[in-house]
Write a structure and sequence with these properties.
By secondary structure, this protein is of the alpha+beta class. It folds into four domains: about 80 residues, no CATH class; about 55 residues, no CATH class; about 190 residues, C8orf32 fold (Roll); about 130 residues, Immunoglobulin-like (Sandwich). It contains 16 helices and 19 strands. It has a five-stranded antiparallel sheet, with no helix packed on it. The chain has a four-stranded antiparallel sheet with strand order 5-8-3-19, with no helix packed on it. A four-stranded antiparallel sheet has the order 14-13-12-16, with helices on one face. Strand 6 and strand 7 form a beta hairpin. About 35% of the residues are buried.
Length: about 500
C-alpha cells in the first residue's frame, strides 16, 4: 500500500474516533426533553430523570452542542441538590415536632399532613420531608407557633423599631436620603474541611466582599489570607475577593479576609404626588429595569394577571409598588427555602405556593413591579444586627424625581405577621419604614441577581441566583455547600448604639 493511502486511512479513522464539537439538538426536541426531565424531578422520580439524562447524553454525544450537553449534565447535579434538601424521614420529623411543640400529638401530625402543611416529596417512592419542615410549620401557622417549646421574648423587634424611629428622626433635610453613619469591622472565613479535596489540588474561592455604594462606604481591606489573586471593582454587581490556594489535604484549608465598613441608614419621605411617570419613562434605567430576566423574572400570565389585579387603575409608580408591597405582606408567608438552583422559576413558585424566603419574596416583588412598569432591582448581602447575623435579600424601586429607594418586602410581611413584641401602631410604623427606608445593619454584596463571577467560575455555581456564602471549586468540580463552612464575625465600633446580642436567626 502506498504511503499516501495509509495516511488517508489513518486520517479517516481519526475523524471517526475523535469527538467533534457537535451540532445543536433540534431546539424543539431539546425543550421537550428538558420539560420531561423537569416533570420527573418535581414529582420525585429522580432516578428516572437521571437515567433519561444519561440516555440523551449517550445517544446524542456526537451531535449535541456543548451548551445543551452542559444543561443536561446540570440536571444530574440539580437532582442531587434536591435530594440534599429533602432528607428528613417521617420518624425524624415526628421527633423534631415533639421536641419543639408543646403538647404535640401524632394525631395532630396526621391532620397537618392531610391539610398540606408540610413540604415533602416522594423521592423514588420514599416520602422525604424538606429539612426545615418544623420551622416552616411554625412560620406559617400562628396558632402552632404560640406552642413553641423554646419561646423567648424578642429583644430584636423593639431594637429594630427604636433604630428605625431614630433614623427617621435623624433625617432632617428633604434632599438628604442618608443619615448618621455606623462603623463596623468584619471578618469573613471560609473553611474547606480536611479530607474534602486531595492534598495539593488548587482550590479556587470567591468570597463575598462589600460594594462601594451610596449607603455603604469606608471599605478598607485590612488583611487577607492567602494573598488575593483578584478583587472586583468597587461597584461590581456581585463583588468578590478571589483566592487560589492548594488544599492542605487532611488539614482544613482556610480563606479569610478582614475589613472595615461604614453604613448610612436611609429614609426617603416620598410625596407620591411629586412622582412623575412620564419623567420616569425617560430615565435611561427604565427599559433595563422593567425587562424580563429569565428564568426567575418572567411575566407569566399568572404573574401579570395578579400584578394588574393588585394595582387596578393606579398609574402612579410609587403607589403601584406600595400596593404590591401591601399585598405581599397580607398574602405571602415566610418560609425557609429550597436551594435556589433547584427551582426553575422562583417568582412563579412563590406566587403558586404563597410562601418563600427573603430572596424568593424579593424576586416576586421585583417581577410584579416590572410587570406593571415600575423599575425594580435586586439587592442582597447580610443583615448584621447585634442580636443575629444572617443572609438577606431585598429590593429597590426607581421613582422620579427621588431616584432609587429601598424596599424590603420580606420585612414588610414579617412585621405584619410575626412581630408580636410590638403593638399594632409600632408594627405599622416599622412596616412603613421598610417601604423607602433601610436600617444601618445591611452589608450589601449584590446589586443584581445571577450576575457572573469574575474571574469566571468554570463549574456550576452552588447558588446561581445569590452570592452571600461564597463559591468554591477544585479539580474541575464545584464544592457544594456541604463541602465548606462560612462564618462572618462583626465588631460594632459605635459603642452603645450596638447592644450585645446573640448570633443566629430568630425564627
Amino acid at each position: 500500500m502506498r504511503p499516501f493511502a495509509i495516511i488517508a486511512i489513518l486520517a479517516a479513522t481519526a475523524m471517526i474516533l475523535t469527538p467533534r464539537e457537535g451540532t445543536a439538538m433540534p431546539e424543539e426536541d431539546f425543550e421537550r426533553a428538558m420539560r420531561e426531565i423537569a416533570a420527573m424531578q418535581e414529582s420525585g422520580r429522580l432516578t428516572e430523570a437521571d437515567n433519561r439524562v444519561q440516555q440523551l447524553l449517550s445517544e446524542r454525544h456526537s451531535d449535541m452542542a456543548s451548551g445543551q450537553r452542559e444543561a443536561l449534565e446540570f440536571e444530574i447535579e440539580r437532582a442531587n441538590r434536591i435530594r440534599r434538601d429533602y432528607t428528613l424521614t417521617e420518624e425524624r420529623l415526628l421527633e423534631q415536632l415533639a421536641e419543639r411543640i408543646e403538647d404535640f400529638s401524632e394525631e395532630e401530625y396526621r391532620e397537618w399532613l392531610a391539610a398540606g402543611k408540610f413540604d415533602y416529596k416522594l423521592l423514588d417512592g420514599e416520602r422525604r420531608f424538606f429539612n426545615a419542615s418544623v420551622s416552616n410549620l411554625l412560620f406559617r401557622n400562628e396558632d402552632i407557633r404560640a406552642r413553641r417549646a423554646d419561646r423567648t421574648e424578642s429583644v430584636w423587634q423593639p431594637f429594630l423599631h427604636e433604630h428605625a424611629m431614630r433614623v427617621m428622626e435623624e433625617h432632617r433635610h428633604p434632599a438628604q436620603d442618608t443619615t448618621a453613619p455606623r462603623h463596623f469591622r468584619l471578618r469573613m472565613t471560609i473553611t474547606v474541611p480536611g479530607g474534602t479535596v486531595p492534598e495539593g489540588r488548587i482550590i479556587r474561592c470567591w468570597m463575598p466582599f462589600p460594594q462601594q455604594i451610596t449607603s455603604q462606604s469606608g471599605i478598607e481591606l485590612l488583611s487577607a489570607s492567602p494573598e488575593p489573586e483578584w478583587i472586583n471593582a468597587p461597584n461590581y454587581p456581585a463583588r468578590s475577593i478571589y483566592f487560589e490556594q492548594r488544599s492542605r489535604g487532611e488539614e482544613p484549608t482556610v480563606f479569610e479576609a478582614e475589613y472595615t465598613l461604614t453604613t448610612h441608614p436611609r429614609w426617603n419621605p416620598v410625596d407620591p404626588d411629586r412622582v412623575r411617570p412620564a419623567l420616569q419613562r425617560e430615565n435611561p434605567y427604565f427599559e433595563y429595569f422593567t425587562r424580563e430576566q429569565p428564568p426567575h423574572v418572567v411575566f407569566s400570565p399568572a404573574i401579570r394577571e395578579k400584578a394588574e389585579e393588585i394595582v387596578g387603575d393606579e398609574t402612579n409608580p410609587y403607589r403601584k409598588a406600595r400596593l404590591i408591597y401591601n399585598w405581599i405582606s397580607d398574602n405571602i408567608q415566610y418560609s425557609f427555602a429550597r436551594e435556589y438552583s433547584t427551582l426553575r422559576n422562583i417568582s412563579e413558585y412563590v406566587l403558586e405556593n404563597r410562601y418563600g424566603d427573603c430572596g424568593q419574596i424579593a424576586l416576586l416583588f421585583i417581577t410584579m413591579c416590572r410587570a406593571v412598569d415600575v423599575p425594580a432591582r435586586w439587592q442582597s448581602g447580610w443583615v448584621i444586627y447585634p442580636q443575629f447575623r444572617n443572609l438577606h435579600d431585598w429590593a429597590e424601586i426607581l421613582t422620579e424625581p427621588y431616584g432609587w429607594i429601598p424596599v424590603d418586602p420580606n420585612f414588610g410581611l414579617d412585621i405584619k405577621q410575626r412581630f408580636d413584641a410590638l403593638d399594632a401602631a409600632e408594627r405599622q410604623e416599622l412596616k412603613d419604614f421598610f417601604f423607602g427606608g433601610m436600617d444601618a445593619y445591611r452589608l450589601v454584596i449584590n446589586s443584581e441577581h445571577g450576575y457572573p463571577h469574575y474571574p469566571p467560575k468554570r463549574t456550576p455555581r452552588s447558588d446561581d441566583v445569590d452570592f452571600q456564602r461564597g463559591e468554591l471549586e477544585a479539580g474541575g468540580e464545584n464544592l457544594y455547600f456541604h463541602q465548606f463552612r462560612y462564618r462572618l464575625d462583626v465588631e460594632y465600633l459605635d459603642g452603645s448604639d450596638h447592644p450585645a446580642g446573640r448570633a443566629g436567626e430568630e425564627d
